[in-house]
Structure formats: C-alpha cells, structure tokens
Amino acid sequence: MGFLDQFWQLTIDGLMVGSLYAVIALGYTLVYGVLQLINFAHSEVFMLGSFGGLFAARALLPDDGSVPGGLASVGLVAIGLGAGAICGGLAAFTLERVAYRPLRRRSAPRLAYLISAIGASLFAVNLAGKEFGRQNVDLPDLFHNGTVFTVFGADVSTQSLVIFAVAVAMLIGLDRLVAGTRLGQGIRAVAQDADTAVLMGVNVERIIIITFVVGGLLAGAGGFLYAMTFNASYSMGFVPGVKAFTAAVLGGIGNVRGAMLGGLLLGLVESYGGYLFQASYKDVIAFLVLVAILMIRPSGLLGERLGRAA
Questions:
Q1: Which candidate, 239, 221, 237, places its Cα nearest to that of 290?
Q2: I need a labelling partner for 56 at 20 to 30 A (CA). Which of 50, 173, 217, 269 fits?
Q3: Is residue 251 part of a domain?
Q4: Which domain range does residue 174 map to?
Q5: Domain tally for the chain?
Q6: Chain CA centroid to CA 44, Å
Q7: Per-10-residue mean pLDDT for the chain, 310 residues long?
Q8: How confident is the model at residue 307, as a pLDDT?
Q9: Using CA atoms in the order 37, 239, 282, 170, what is the torsion angle rounded to 10 degrees?
Q10: What is the structure's pLDDT at 123?
Q11: How far is CA 76 from CA 4, 69, 82, 136, in A?
Q12: Is 143 inside any structural domain?
C-alpha cells in the first residue's frame, strides 16, 4: 500500500500519540512560563503517574482474567486516570519542595536547577527500577478493543478513541483554567512579571506550587493513558519526555496552546515519517524536528511567552 492509501490511518494514529505528547508538554510549558526554567525531571513524574494508575487499575480487575465491559470499564479507566493523576501531582509537589524550592530561596544560579533536576530524575528512575522491577509491566485490557467506526476507510479503535478523547478533554480543561479563572490570571500574572504580581497581591509561592502540581496531574494521567498502549517501565519517561519537550519548543515554550499544537503536529510528523522511512526512525525524526526548530524558529510556531522568573 502507498502513503496515500494509509494517510488517514496514519493521521488517526499520529493524533492519538500527539495528544499524549501535548498533555506531557504542558508540564514543561507551565513551569517554564512561571519560573523560566525547564523541569527536566518532569518525565519521571509522568513515569510515576503511569505506575500509580496501572497498579490501581490492576488491583480492581476481576480475578478470573476476564475483560470487563460497560460501566465497569468506564470505572476502571476513571480510577486509573485518577490514581495516575494523584501520583503525578504528589511527585511534582515533592519535586518542587525538595529539588527547586531550596534553590529558589537561596537565589541559586540557573545551572543549579538543572543539576538538581537531573539528580532528582536519576533518583526517581532508580527508585522505580528497584521497587517495580527492571522489566516492562503490562496493563491488562480494561475494555474490549474493537473498531468503533471508520474515517475514510481508516479504523478508529476503542483504545485510540478513549486516549484521544480523554487527552483532548484535559487539554481543553487546562486551557479554560489558564484563560478563564482567577487561578489562571495568577499564573499568567506571575509568568508576565513576578515582581509586579507580588505588588498586586498575588501569592507567588502558592502559584508556583499549584503550577507544578497541575503539570504533575496532567503528566500522571497522561502516563496512565500511555501505559494502556505501550506498557510501563522504570525508564519509560525519557523518550516521551524528550518528545514532549520537543512539542513544547515546537509550539512555543511557555505558551499553553502552543504546547497543544506542538504535540499534535509532532505526533503527525512521527506517524508520517515512520511510514515513509522506517518505524525505527520515529525517535530520530523527533530529534531532527527539535534541532530544526531551534535553528530556524527558536521561539516556536506560536511564539514564546516571555516573562521574568519568579
């Protein structure tokens, strides 16, 4: 089959994976918008969230190994998402308190934040490897994965539809949170000018903590969705994390809608490129996109949100 024959199937697969990249990328872009730094330990928040959701869902599965259906499937997915989000939020909160807050109080140089993030990332990876094992941990089927409908001859499976729908719902929810609530106003105020935000009565410390936790909630829920397709492992965070960072840079680091757009575009580029060349080149394509964006338009497609660090 030629590329045109597979175009719609590749598009559906690309949008599904791209929506996951977008969810993870929002954690990078939120923290950068407020603190003007890249949280390179965010990929491990994603990984810990995936295990939290996976173990919660597995604990409630029937003992006879049967695949649940109907409301039972909906409940299992919801519990997995909730558990993953909670674990991701707790991991992000702990990360901010332990790895970043002491440095911020001492007005440490930016390099110290990077070193602290790398140390926290290595600690989390090795802790997960010790506690959860060094092999992939699979998530049993939570629902019957059949074809729901077709789009121009391309099959849309139950799994693809669930992942894409939940991811898009989270993206829209965050966009409304940032654009239409008092909390969102506080986040945007701190991102634009932290000193002026303090004078206007904004609690910057509270905004920073909430920003980390919101990014962690999204990453944890995204980790569970990722584990539904690709399983979970202690080292799973690195590659999706780099791709999500690429998506954030592609859309414009610090720009929430840019991260969403960047994730979807990167998923499509990977899907098309993997078919035109080889599937093993998907990771290479993501790195090439990152290098190209940094060389051609480092501010991203929708422009960088410039502000002063809190």
A1: 239
A2: 173
A3: no
A4: 22-236
A5: 1
A6: 11
A7: 80 92 90 84 94 90 76 89 95 93 88 91 93 86 83 86 90 88 88 85 89 93 91 90 90 86 92 84 82 83 56
A8: 43
A9: -70
A10: 93
A11: 37, 10, 10, 21
A12: yes
Q: How far apart are CA 98 and CA 142, in angstroms?
A: 36
pTM summary value: 0.89
